[in-house]
Amino acid sequence: MKKLVFILLLVFIAMQSASFAALENKKVEIGIPYLEMSAISFLHQDANKQVTSFTGVNWSLGITHRMYFEPVKVNEINMSWEIGTWALIIPYIGAGGDYVWDNAWYAGIGLFYIFPYPRVGVFL
């Protein structure tokens, strides 16, 4: 438990020191280990260069595809659903919401089936 609190503290300190940037130029999403299912993912954007989803590898050595209900907006909660695999062969489905700061960091809560888990990462 102390490790988790320490990691969360470090993540929030890093979020405060990150440079401010718009999401239009972002191409990759990176999740923080133990705090996010996805490890590294490629962003999908609509015609207006707004992030709508991402697909990539997750920390359990599977695949994750997260689709936002609307294009991602900064300084707002963005609801999403996701599908993927765990350990490459076990399918999963989930949902959740992420708050995205204007420095491209996000934090939120997701559901892995019915089990909640934290989500923290950054768009690069």
Report on the architecture of this protein:
With 124 residues, the protein is mostly beta strands. The chain has one domain (2-123). It is 13% helix and 52% strand. It is built from 1 helix and 8 strands, in the order H-E-E-E-E-E-E-E-E. It has one helix at 2-17, and strands at 28-31, 38-45, 51-58, 63-68, 76-86, 90-100, 105-112, 115-123. It has an 8-stranded antiparallel beta barrel. It is globular and about 35 Å long.
Task: Name its key features.
124 residues, mainly beta, eight-stranded antiparallel barrel, 8 strands
Q: Whole-Å distance between the termini?
A: 29 Å
Number of DSSP helices?
Answer: 1
On the 0 to 100 scale, the average pLDDT is: 85
Order of helices and strands: HEEEEEEEE
Structure summary, number of beta strands: 8
Rg, nearest Å = 14 Å
Which consecutive residue ranges, at least 5 long each, have pLDDT under 50?
15-21
Q: What about the largest sheet?
A: 8 strands, antiparallel, barrel
CA-based shape? globular
Q: What percentage of amino acids are in beta strands?
A: over 45%
- Number of domains as seen in the coordinates: 1
Q: State the share of residues found in helices, binned by percent.
A: 10-25%
Order of strands side by side in the largest beta sheet? 1-2-3-4-5-6-7-8
